[in-house]
Amino acid sequence: MIAGAKGRSLVAAMPRSRVLLETDGPFAQLRRAPLEPWDIAVACLSLSNIWNVDYPEAESIIRRNEATLLAGQ
Prior knowledge:
Blueprint: H1 5-13, E1 29-30, E2 33-34, H2 40-51, H3 55-71
């Protein structure tokens, strides 16, 4: 979703506290290899650029969102 300009625009408009990541693997690919759950780093790097924050902050936002979801809040 964040590979194209429209997807990046949509993500920029979303509340950061609601963004979760998924890879669409094994159907989505990166460098001709299926995406795996640990490929989250690629998405966090893109999010850091979209949100204009550093990588650790983008990763922290995503981890907080996942923890909130898993806690049932």
